[in-house]
């Protein structure tokens, strides 16, 4: 589980920095908003 997730997350963090947000309790996935990236991880 989470294959390549760390690499993707690191890439997003480098690009967006503090704009990376976490929503626990939701299914894993990436939601892209204008100027914002939301990372959803299934708890």
Automatic annotation (TrEMBL):
Q: Which organism is it from?
A: marine sediment metagenome
Q: Could you tell me what this protein is called?
A: Uncharacterized protein
């Amino acid at each position: 589980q989470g294959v390549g997730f760390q690499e993707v997350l690191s890439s997003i963090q480098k690009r967006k920095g503090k704009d990376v947000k976490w929503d626990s309790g939701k299914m894993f996935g990436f939601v892209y908003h204008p100027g914002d990236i939301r990372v959803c991880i299934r708890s």
